[in-house]
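Summary for the steering committee. One of the milestones for this cycle was to obtain a three-dimensional model of the protein with magnesium ion bound, which we needed before selecting residues for the alanine scan. The sequence and ligand used are listed below.
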Amino acid sequence: MIKTELLKIGDLEGDLEKIKRAASLIRQGQVVAFPTETVYGLGANALDPGAVDKIFKAKGRPADNPLIVHIDNIDSWSMLVETIPDQALDLAEAFWPGPLTIILKKKDLVSDKVTAGLDTVAVRMPSHPVARKLIELSACPIAAPSANLSGKPSPTKALHVMEDMQGRIPMILDGGDANVGLESTVLDLTFDLPIILRPGGVTREMLELVLGEVLLDPSVFSSLEEGQKPRSPGSKYKHYAPKAQVTIYKGRQDRLIAGISKEAQRLIQAGQRVGILTTDENKASYKDGIIRSMGSRQRPEDLARVLFSLLREFDDLGVDHILAEGVDTKNEGLAVMNRLARAAGFSIVDL
Ligand code: AMP
Ligand code: MG
């Protein structure tokens, strides 16, 4: 077992020595967890296949699920990809640094370990100051998936990372709670039209303002048929799932509340521990079960910020079944419903 150090980064200048230590681990081919604005990442030198291997081992991640490479300047991007089309530059101008990952054809320099053998590479420039400083001081692009054990909800707090990674990696940088709370938007630019492979904090609406029409990959809202090859390899795995069984309920608010309340009563009578994932508008209407609100339906970005943390909390409370309210798929609501649908294994009830 490796000893895992947890280092709190209060302010960037005062705690620079700690980030330098993390960077030196990265340069030595080690794995370090660090905060980003989306979720916590598990980083290693993207140009060192041995180091990248350690990420897969620490997470228990299947080798055919590629990683996102994190950079802190546009020059590093040109090192990694064949060409950067104007569309991509426009996106970088509009949304970087920030929660947008762009997929382009890769250069040979990028190892097959990072891209899981694909001829494309996913790149993002994060905005979190600790992430940026870590990349700068490491002086290499950093490959980083979310810092959870494979299949668990992504970590939005250093404590979540500690729960999953203690004994598996040498260091965790604690930069506070993630502000977006869901993983980045993944956009593939290698087809005729841009395709969202995974919705996130940069919404479809925001992308369309820059690009015109943007497609949504079918894997966003359905599980794949047997034998089907996904564009985004990650989408074939059960993701973001708490231990509890999750069911989503969609429909008019009054029907939602009645349907969920009835099901909660039934499950509780059958001896199950029930969690209700609701919204501020409806939370006072429930009586039974462990009730947690994600925030107001008027502010989908608030729902995104706390979703994963609440799923982990339900696990900590020993909940067997989570009954979740569906939300509108406009703006950040699309990413919220995508993660909920995956956590639920696409078990969605229309009321
Ligand atoms: P995570 O690192 O856990 O946030 O997951 C990264 C996501 O990006 C996964 O769903 C991957 O399948 C997807 N991804 C990374 N690189 C590529 C790529 N080159 N082509 C398609 N999807 C990718
Ligand atoms: Mg992940």
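Key point for the committee: The chain has two domains: 5-221, 245-350.
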